[in-house]
Amino acid sequence: MSGDKLEHVLAELRRDPRFISCETAWHHFPETPGSYLDIPDGLHPALKQALANKGIKALYSHQRHAYDLVTRGENVCVVTPTASGKTMCYNLPVLQAVLKDDGIRALYIFPTKALAQDQLAEIEDTAGQGGFKVKGFTFDGDTPASKRRLARETGQIIITNPDMLHQAILPHHPRWAKLFSSLAYVIVDEMHQYRGVFGSHVANVLRRFKRICAFYGTRPRFILASATIANPGELALGLTGEEVTVIDESGAPASEKHFIFCHPGTPDRDGEIRHSAINAAARIASRFVKNGIQTLVFARSRMSCELLVQYLRDAYPNDFEKHRIQGYRGGYLPRERRAVEKGIREGDILGIAATNALELGIDIGGLDAVIMAGYPGTIASTWQQAGRAGRKQGKSVAILISGGSPLDRFIVNNPDYFFAQTPEYALINPDNPYILGQHVKCAAYELPFSHGDGESPKLGHTPVGHILEHLAEQKILHKGATRWNWSADSFPAAGISLRSATNENFVIIDTTHGSEVIGEVDWASAPMLIHDQAIYMHGGQQYHVIKLDYHDRKAYVKQVDVDYYTDANLAVGVRVMTVDDSYPSANMRAGFGELIVTALATIYKKIKLYTNENIGSGEISIPEMNLHTQGMWFSLSEEVTRGMDPHCVGGVLSGMANVLLNVAPLFLMSDKNDLGVAVEVRSVCDGRPTIYLYDSYPGGVGLAEKAFRMLPEILRASLDLISSCPCARGCPGCTGPEAQVGEGTKDLAVKVLKSITQEAHRDQQGDNREA
Amino acid sequence: MTNREIIERLRKRIEEILRQYDPPGSRKPHASTARSGAEAGGGYGGYPEVQTQTAGRDGFRVYTSVYAAGANQWLQPTPIDAILLLAGSEESRLAPDSLALFLDIETTGLSGAGTVAFLVGLGRWTDKGFEIAQFFLEDRDSEPDMLAEVGAQIGSAQVLVTFNGKPFDVPVLQTRSIINGMPRLASGLESRFHLDLYSAVRKLGKHPLYGMSLKECVERFPGIRRLHDIPGRMIPALYFMYERDGDVSVLDQVFRHNRLDILDMVVLLRYLHCLFTQGYEWCDDSCALAGIGKFYAARGQMEPAARFLTAAVGNSHRSPPETRAAHSRLLATVLRRQGDWDKAASIWKTLIGSSQAGYEDYLWLARYYEVCLGDIRTSFRIILEYIEHCRESGSPVPEPVASRKRRLARIISATHS
């Protein structure tokens, strides 16, 4: 039925000249039938019963393949689309094993604790359907002490996250002796999340984990699941250190689907597009919602998410049913989130505005329509968000509306570019000395490393003898007769965080009636969202920030009803603190050292709802936020920029920085998000055009340091990438869309790179001669 | 600066720190309920350590010290019954001549896989007095041997007495056993009958004692003070210093600290036993008395419960009125369960007379009149009185009161008709 309604709205859109003039692509993916295989004969009768009760008569081919490989003792990695029944790929073999031998244990690892509850519910449902019992426990920061003991002693399936494994389970492994000594399976879901620095940490946590398993005499099999990435097998190998068979052919049927790209409005005479993606998304989403079609709108920021809730509610015809429109984002209280998830699953909620908080495996089922208000930033997340559209039966639609940035407009203007791209690589470097060193420390605490038997001690396959020597020099370890003994009154895991973001949050307190905590804002976003006089929006309600108590991390707000929202300006800058190394050459000068990246919220603007008019402004007085990190930079000599239009220099620098951000992660085996770039047309140091590349982690993790050492190679690769890029005048994959960096940038960047790479090359040869 | 000099300097610093923590004579002994007031000087409470002998083994050493019984009024053997009582255990399999072992360990840090128990002190009563054997890990490679020996000692005893040993000392030894591939030892430790004195202390209710360290407990109650003791958090660093330099004398203070902890446990056990059996006669701490009363009541021993709660109410003139009322209410419950409704009723009356009564007190008094005296009208009046209170204060009438009113009204109208 909803298919008919959807077809009706789509037909309306097709006939709407205004919409059609904005549309740049309308892809139609026909329905594809599923590929099914029999339920395995050997499956335990209780599980057969559970499947029968769930109405499952056959397995998708990938589910059956996973089951067969796992029961044969292989490690597998399942890479199939959203909602293709990945969970079954691991639950089936695990439950089968537990039913055959109730002493067997399994560990499930999810990137966030929000996903753990869903998993447990799923397992318990299957057990209930099959009439058997399985002792499953979630183990995370929310688990009460009494349940922790029970989980350790009796849990057959423990559902946790990498952070808990790192800080609570491994350093206390003897308490978990029962789990470790009968552990048969480890499940790593949402594997694609473990990339870059975070992934490198997790790989080391898994190395420590395997070392402890070996101590208890077990060698569990890994079952991994991932969203689509370019290199699932490589990532699985890197994370687990095991040979892993990749299953990437989905047997799940796909229903008919439309994927539409469009601009928010028609370009006016100057070629400018003045409508915002948010207004357009609200307009289009309302059409679906009014027709009773469940619609999810993805916003790029929390602010846009709240604006969308408000716009969608305003447009909703029935005053008594405004609650059928809800928001979903980070900062909502857990119970609010659970209620929205339930509302979506049960169909009570018709319209949802969400941030990418909903992108991750939260179980809300499939929806009829997904609208992306702005390009999600990567090919992979775009597919993932679009994948939220699509039920088992019936049609669905995904619409990508370009936001204001040149990158957005490029993607929407060049749909073929998007559809031809392979998804991004997920790279990790577990041997990064900064990260490895921290985990060697943790491992030495968990179980002393031995020495003296002629073989160098290892973590995973990596020799770590030199790190142990170093820790002994620091008096953290003591070299005994046979072992490296922990020799410090400290608990190393406590001081090592797997993630860059701090957990520090600001609490929002509504003082309209008494005082009630309504939500949280993370530390980094606070200056933008909850400065004094800001309009903070939560669940579609506006609040005026009366006072931000920066010191106590609290914001006091009162409900208001105004016709504007506030938007703050953030001034970002880079300051070089120390120059630890540098080398000059005729055409450039490269340096490496400590940097401070500063972010200061300066002023805010009051912006009228719908029209986006600027109707006032004010100052913000919040301390500057500093990221103290490591960075490298290079400045161009006068030789290089001679004759160049001074107005073009900024564009060329931005274009080169964009290339660098695409190329450097490949050399550093890291993720784009681990790095930051900044450019200065006239640097404070030497007045020359300068490009900075820095680690987005407090203190740095050695990425910029390595980039500094590999700079000539990275620059040559950058030149290679631009020269071989098939685009005419710049694209997101090379120097960036021309609209962003300026006309002729691509050619200029090639010229600049040619001159500095030749120089760098010659210099390096010179060094070799001297050596 | 040579290594030697660095260490000398460090040790001087440690001594300075120690002085800051516990300057001699800076504090007056607390007024204690037991009024024993003994002050610990050199050895333990001024009692010399009678003998110390050292037995050397491979990689670990055993130091033995003996203390004469009775040197301190509390340094006395305590019968096994007392241990059973304080553990709140119904267990009767322990023979009167069972061996109780007092256990306290010194470690390289807080609990976690990397924390090692480098000193294990085991104390027991012998013919010669109280004997403490301290097992010291000279070389970490010998940990399995030392654990095996400690395990054998513990295995030969029937009872383990610790302070906070359930969450700390025993799990650390279990962890070490598992890491050294001795899982049987770990499960042996688990099954040993174990009195954790800290949990007995916690039974004294939300008392100032709650959350105190062993040292503080002993100072507060039997009134014995330690002087020149080392703060526990310095201990790991001293062991690491020993490991690097091999000079065991840096640990003298640690050995002493461990012995004092064990002796304090003997004293605390004796004291708690005295408090739990006769405290109603001499203790004037109403919270502690009420806590003990509750402890007995929970185990169905109403006679001692009533004795302790009576003493608690008698000593509660300095307590806030709501605490006093709570103790009285508890006493009334115990008396009622003993069958002494008359005494219980007089307490409910007093409570209702004061401003501290809750609706349960009215309900119980009404029930007393209805069931014990057969006086339905008075019973009904009491309920109406409470409902009137509710009306005055504008608070809703609790459902149990309302339903009692309905029932009593039915009975009254039935007798009339």
Written description of the protein model:
By secondary structure, chain A is of the alpha/beta class. Chain A folds into five domains: 2-31 and 254-420, Rossmann fold (3-Layer(aba) Sandwich); 36-247, Rossmann fold (3-Layer(aba) Sandwich); 433-494; 505-562, no CATH class; 570-770, no CATH class. A seven-stranded mixed β-sheet of chain A has the order 1-11-16-15-12-14-13, with helices on both faces. Chain A has a seven-stranded parallel β-sheet with strand order 6-7-5-8-9-4-10, with helices on both faces. In chain A, strands 27, 28, 29, 30, 31 and 32 form a six-stranded antiparallel β-sheet that branches. The longest helix of chain A has 26 residues, at 745-770. The model of chain A is unreliable at 762-771 (pLDDT under 50). Chain B has 417 residues and is α/β, with parallel strands linked by helices. Chain B folds into two domains: 3-280, Nucleotidyltransferase, domain 5; 283-416, Tetratricopeptide repeat domain (Serine Threonine Protein Phosphatase 5, Tetratricopeptide repeat, Alpha Horseshoe), CATH 1.25.40.10. Classes of the chains: A alpha/beta (771), B alpha/beta (417). At the A-B interface, helix 18 and strand 21 of A face helix 4 and helix 8 of B.
Write the topology of this structure:
The complex is a heterodimer of chains A (771) and B (417).
Chain A: H1 2-15, H2 17-22, E1 23-29, E2 36-37, H3 45-53, E3 59-60, H4 61-71, E4 76-79, H5 86-100, E5 105-109, H6 114-130, E6 136-138, H7 145-154, E7 157-160, H8 162-169, H9 177-181, E8 183-188, H10 196-215, E9 221-226, H11 232-240, E10 245-247, E11 257-262, H12 277-290, E12 295-299, H13 302-315, E13 325-328, H14 334-346, E14 351-354, E15 369-373, H15 379-386, E16 396-401, H16 406-413, H17 415-420, H18 433-446, E17 449-450, E18 458-459, E19 462-463, H19 465-473, E20 477-479, E21 483-486, E22 505-510, E23 516-522, H20 526-529, E24 535-538, E25 541-549, E26 554-560, E27 564-584, E28 588-608, E29 614-619, E30 625-636, H21 638-641, H22 646-668, E31 675-680, E32 690-695, H23 703-709, H24 711-724, H25 738-741, H26 745-770
Parallel strand pairs in A: 4-9, 4-10, 5-7, 5-8, 6-7, 8-9, 11-16, 12-14, 12-15, 13-14, 15-16, 22-26
Antiparallel strand pairs in A: 1-11, 2-3, 17-21, 18-19, 20-21, 22-23, 24-25, 25-26, 27-28, 28-29, 28-30, 30-32, 31-32
Helix pairs in contact in A: 3-6, 4-5, 10-18, 12-13, 22-24, 22-26, 24-26
Chain B: H1 3-21, E1 51-56, E2 60-67, H2 80-86, E3 100-107, E4 117-126, E5 129-137, H3 143-156, E6 159-162, H4 165-179, H5 183-191, E7 193-196, H6 197-202, H7 214-220, H8 235-245, H9 252-282, H10 286-298, H11 302-314, H12 321-338, H13 341-353, H14 359-372, H15 376-393, H16 399-416
Helix pairs in contact in B: 2-9, 4-5, 7-9, 9-11, 10-11, 10-12, 11-12, 12-13, 13-14, 14-15, 15-16
